């Protein structure tokens, strides 16, 4: 038996995020602050603003934050990459990060950091894996009820978690799931 790089997008994403966090520790946090936090009220004349709208999904606060996101990404991601293909899944990830980053910048007074939106996009998209045309999977309905209800309730908690990113990721996953089954 040999070890196979079975899910190139997911494994590369995990390695890039881990590498960024490791490098950030060598710069005392300046790498994350400069390139991987999507700040509120960003200056749209600054070219790094456009990078941060997407790159926030690569940065993580600490190892615990990264591990909590990648536990689910590494579990669900390879299944989705096999089903949708590497290029298509990467496109979904970029779109989800971009929508979440842009809306967070325009609407909320807090910064955004981490791949939580992508995690929730994967959770919702995963419920479409056995979707048949003309049906709505009960698993999709239950996942929506459980996860989104929890996020709406948690939105009132005073914590540093962006429930908005989770909800937007879930919405993106729903759109991608239904759109991929049309026709």
Please give the count of helices: 8
The CATH C-level class name:
Mainly Alpha
Mean pLDDT: 88
Largest sheet: none
Sketch the topology as an H/E string, one letter per element.
HHHHHHHH
Give the count of structural domains. Answer: 1
In whole angstroms, the N-to-C terminal distance is 41 Å
The share of residues in extended strands comes to under 5%
Give me the Rg, rounded.
Answer: 16 Å
Helix content, binned percent: 55-70%
The dominant shape is globular
Structural class of the secondary structure composition?
Answer: mainly alpha
CATH topology: Rhomboid-like fold
* Number of extended strands: 0
- How does CATH name the architecture? Up-down Bundle
CATH level-4 homologous superfamily: Rhomboid-like
Give structural notes.
It is a single chain. With 183 residues, this protein is mostly helical. Helix 3 crosses helix 5 (86-107) and helix 7 runs antiparallel to helix 8 (163-181). 68% of the residues lie in helices and 0% in strands. The model has no long low-confidence stretch (mean pLDDT 88). The chain has a single domain (8-181), classed as Up-down Bundle (Rhomboid-like fold). It is globular, with a radius of gyration of 16 Å.
């Amino acid at each position: 038996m040999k070890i196979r790089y079975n899910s190139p997008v997911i494994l590369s994403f995990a390695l890039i995020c881990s590498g960024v966090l490791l490098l950030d520790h060598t710069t005392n946090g300046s790498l994350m602050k400069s390139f991987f936090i999507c700040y509120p009220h960003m200056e749209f004349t600054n070219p790094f603003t456009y990078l941060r709208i997407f790159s926030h999904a690569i940065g993580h606060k600490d190892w615990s934050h990264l591990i909590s996101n990648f536990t689910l990404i590494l579990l669900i991601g390879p299944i989705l990459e096999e089903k949708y293909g590497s290029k298509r899944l990467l496109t979904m990830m970029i779109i989800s990060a971009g929508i979440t980053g842009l809306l967070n910048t325009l609407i909320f007074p807090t910064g955004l950091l981490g791949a939580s939106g992508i995690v929730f996009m994967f959770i919702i998209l995963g419920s479409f894996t056995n979707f048949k045309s003309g049906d709505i999977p009960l698993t999709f309905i239950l996942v929506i009820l459980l996860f989104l209800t929890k996020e709406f309730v948690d939105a009132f908690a005073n914590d540093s978690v962006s429930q908005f990113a989770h909800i937007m990721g879930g919405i993106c996953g729903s759109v991608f799931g239904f759109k991929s089954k049309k026709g």
